[in-house]
Amino acid sequence: MRILILGGDGYLGWATAMHFSARGHEVHAVDNYLRRRALAENGTDSLTPIADSLPARAAAWEEVAGYHIGVTEGDLCDWSVTEPLFRDFQPEAIIHYGEMPSAPYSLISREHAVFTQYNNVVNTLNVLFAMRDYTPRAHLVKLGTMGEYGTPNIDIEEGFIDIRHNGREDRLPFPKLPGSLYHCSKVHDSTNIHFASRIWGLRSTDLNQGVVYGIETEETKLDPRFVTRFDYDELFGTALNRFCLQAVIGHPLTVYGKGGQTRGYLNIVDTLQCVELAVMNPAAEGEYRVFNQFTEQFSINELADLVHRAGTDYGYNIRVDHVENPRVEAEEHYYNAKHTALLDLGLKPRYLSETLVESMFSAIERHKHRVITKAIMPRTKWRPEPRVMESIAE
Amino acid sequence: MRILILGGDGYLGWATAMHFSARGHEVHAVDNYLRRRALAENGTDSLTPIADSLPARAAAWEEVAGYHIGVTEGDLCDWSVTEPLFRDFQPEAIIHYGEMPSAPYSLISREHAVFTQYNNVVNTLNVLFAMRDYTPRAHLVKLGTMGEYGTPNIDIEEGFIDIRHNGREDRLPFPKLPGSLYHCSKVHDSTNIHFASRIWGLRSTDLNQGVVYGIETEETKLDPRFVTRFDYDELFGTALNRFCLQAVIGHPLTVYGKGGQTRGYLNIVDTLQCVELAVMNPAAEGEYRVFNQFTEQFSINELADLVHRAGTDYGYNIRVDHVENPRVEAEEHYYNAKHTALLDLGLKPRYLSETLVESMFSAIERHKHRVITKAIMPRTKWRPEPRVMESIAE
Question: How far is CA A209 from the centre of its chain?
Answer without folding.
Answer: 7
